[in-house]
Write a structure and sequence with these properties.
This protein is α/β, with parallel strands linked by helices and 221 residues long. It contains 7 helices and 8 strands, in the order αβαββββααβαβαβα.
Amino acid sequence: MKARTRFRDRSEAGELLAEKLAGYADRPDVIVLALPRGGVPVAYTVARLLHAPLDVFVVRKLGVPGHEELAMGAIASGGVIVLNDEVLRMLQLSDDAIDEVATQEQSELTRRERLYRGTRPPIDVEGRTVILVDDGIATGATMRAAIQAVRQMGAGRIVVAAPTVARETYDSMHASVDDFVAVIIPEDFFAVGQWFDDFSQTTDDEVRSLLESAARPEAGS
């Protein structure tokens, strides 16, 4: 079969990704967690084809005060904080400074979770096989934070899945998870969007609609 060189859209990417994840289908221990926003349409298709529950997993970067583009860590769904010890040692930031940023980002994370999930409780990951899905992985910073967070939350096995991922990132991240599944792993990777014909922005309304659909009993049938 001819190697895939690009995707029509996120839905097709999810179908092709689900084919590679077929070994996880119809397993009661498997859950799919989507990194919003772009990861949700991909994960929705994956979860539907694997007959697995779907939830959203929000990760927010913790930027250094005054230099917000530099990440000193991240905060994720479930209130888990992942810190970059190297950056913290270099800058010698106080606990109060870290707590202030974390509190601000926790507020935004809570707002987004409420927006996306509504009143539905999050899915418990403890002891489960967690498939973390995004629409593509470039540097992998957000996905690494998600991996550490679900590990701290007690996930049994961690699987990373994305339609496309930079070769360097795939090679460096592979050993940190139980399985890493991708469809296209190019040597030359400039941006996730270059591998899609349609890479239009996923809206909050689309995220909410897909999660509501996945939560209905018939969605996994």
